[in-house]
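Entries read sequence, tokenised fold; example below:

***
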Amino acid sequence: MREVYRILDANFNRAREALRVVEDCGRFALNDPAITAMAKHMRSDLKDVLAEMPADEMVTSRDTPGDIGTELTSPSEPTRSDLSDVARAACKRLSEALRTIEEYSKFVSPEKVRTLERMRYDGYTLEQRVTGRLLVRTRFADVRLYLLISGVAAGGSVRQLARAAIAGGADALQLRERGLPDAMLLAVAAELRELTDEMGRMLIINDRPDIAAIVGADGVHLGQQDLPIAEARRLLRPGALVGRSTHSVAQAQAAVTEGADYLGVGPVFRTDTKDAGEPQGPQLYRAVADAVGDVPLVPIGGINAENVSDLVDAGAVRVAVSSAVCAADDPKAAARTIRKQLPAPQAPDA
């Protein structure tokens, strides 16, 4: 049995180490309470399983100096291309280790096999969530012009407006049609999903995670009085974004703790489209940026071609606009004028 104990000991170590890598990614890189908690709970479950194994025999069977595997490595093992590569490798290592533990436990501790099988499936879910979050966040990092789109503001076809805005440089669209009946809202959302897929842009749905889930949107944007972020995520596809509107540093910090992927910050300038108190100017953006680190921020409220440079001077790399494009005689030209004033996305190796 000594060789079996060696196998179990090595794979328990692999699984614990992999979970720690994933937990640290969720905690420090993604600021995601759900991923962090899931990894932490899996580590606790693994500890409980190990407590009912012949742990002493496993440790005393360990032979690190005589392990031929310590001298073997693949050419790609010493390098990782980015954060998502690190997390994916850890998730793969976890599933492999759990499978090995499950198989060898069938004659060492068969009563734990069902628990280990469930943990292995939990590991697949954890991998899906981590990978999805990392990919979406990377994609959102390149967003510069974020358009809150409304057919009411445009006084015409939402699809035509969206197509013109994208042609002018809009990177992400947020559908914000609060007065529409649900059936009509769903139809407009589905139409925009088709268009944004076709044109390679992101689609966010305002307030309605159910509509976002049905049409397969890239995410949902929530106000201060809307659903908790964790509950909204339950309705969305894995990896979908959840943004939160914030109007102060305290609200921004609370939203980050809650797990928001990005923050709307405003109102920056006076606006007729959002009732969130008095405009606070670019200094609100600077204060929030200092408080929340690298969480993507989207300043909003009264932003147009004449004042967007004030936000760029304050450090903003993206802005949200609405009437400056939606109510313009030429939405494409209006979007282009604003987009040209925003910094270009950084190259991947920058």
Observations:
- The longest strand covers residues 241-246.
- The mean pLDDT is 90.
- The domain at 142-339 is CATH 3.20.20.70 (TIM Barrel).
